[in-house]
Amino acid sequence: MSRTSFQKGTWVWEGRRQRNSISDAEQLLCLMGPATEVPTFKLDQPNETAEDVERALEVLGDSVEVPQRLVQVIHEYLTTYIDEDGRPTFGGGGYFTAIDDEREPTEAQRSLDVVDSFAISIRLTLAIIGFAKVFRRVLTRQQLRDDVRRIEELASQRLTGAMIGLMRSFTVYVLDPDSPEGTNLLQMINQSRQSRSRIRQDFQVGIEEIRAGLRDVTFGLGEVPDLDNDNKVFECGWSWGITKGAPRVDTSAEGVLQPAGYALAAPYAYFTAVALDCMQHLFSERTRLLGLLDDEQQRLARALQIRYDLTLSYWSTIARFGDERWPLENVPWMTVDGSQSDYLSLLVSSMVVLDMSVNRVDNESDPVRIGQVLEELAERSRITRRPISDNDPALALHLPGFPFQLDGSEEVGGPMLSWELADFSTQLLKQTLRVAGLINRVDQRNEMTNLVDEVWEHITRRRIEQGPAAGLWDQPSAIYPALPPSGEAPSWYYSERVISCLVAAATLIDSPPLRSPALINHATQLLAEADHIYDQELLRISADAGPSMREALKSAGASLRRAHDVMRTRPGTAAALAAQVLVDLDRLSAARRDASGAR
What pairing do the DSSP bridges indicate for beta strands 333-334 and 340-341? Predict the structure, then answer.
């Protein structure tokens, strides 16, 4: 990544797409993500930079020069995506494509704010602010301290703008149950083939508390017609951008642009999933401990958390609706507009997994059921199964991807815009890693980690093999020859998602190992026998025993104490220590008998 980004003494931004606020942020997060989320990759304390990290980044300089150069690059990013008044902008740029292949998006359309930019800006700015706070403490030169303080201020301003953008992109979509959209919603959740009246009644009961909570959400949302009508059904979540008619958010923050919205006031599964995923960072322990939010941002974060909790609860409820087969298990997922895709199933799965991660899992079988859905999606997407033919429709999930039509984007003049999602494999890997972390049985977790290995093998085969970007992503034609080659330039869109998966993998690896009940029982029995024999040897050893016997007994005692210490968290290690102590004590007993002449 450093070799690709830093060439001939200059940072090179452009990858496979033209520069925009999202692509540049993705490129920066390839470094800033691991550096701020995985302790062994930290860069903000030069004296503690790991040797292998320093070697990997040597093209940028040594451990002192790397963070200083990052400050310059970050400043360039933060001062590029602002308007003439210095207010942050969040346009989608080249990530917007036209539904009509013969037309190009206009400049006004490319500058439209999009939730993807808000979301990734939250992740990036929190990483920058945390990096700046720590790095500034080790600096002695005033000029450097001022430079770091400046990027911290700019990042904080961008963070506020992104949070307000998410506030104004949130929406509640109320539907008549007899409309085509309402019918599709009720049909999707009706897996037990109940009567129409019964499923409507059950739906109303299931979302009653969510509806009540949404009635109190007015800050940045405004009035939602018919939400009080219990005969209506609804969806909640994030549209693709600032919704049409979205009110301005009252804020004390200065230098924040609040443009008019054009997006259809209806949730999109992708943008809802992206918004929910990024907001975890606002509420994380790191954000709280480092004090990354100022007073106004904390106020906005509280308002966003209400939306976060209600939306997460809504999608988790409808995905697992009923007492029999879940709607989510009926692949593919169907949206209210009638669209169906395995990608939609994956997006809804990600929201259910997130809900399980932040809230208590009531049923231990639920993560396993999600894991089975992910296994099926891996097969259907031809990741763990070979394509049926060169024209296999599943290949389109990988290239060009699954498109979303951005309703309302044509109102600024120009063609209807589209947003293409080509990260199915990385999204699948990330959710599989998260599910593995939720499972408490060794055999079931092993099934998930086996799937992780298969998906990871698929992703590694998609790496670019030639040119400066060798080792980065993405080249799907390496696996699917029927797809056209993607060129040698890196896709920061895909590469950043791979890095995010690796961070998730590091988190899983860093967690305590699972404790099998059978293993705990085995370790307990071994320790009981080892303790008893050790006590016998203490009792029997004579006062004039040689130093070697005493040293052996002392070593056995230390191993037993260690085994007891790790018993709760690492029963396998405790069992191994106990077994070794038993072997050592047996040798000691044999030596004692030989010394006494006993037979």
Answer: antiparallel
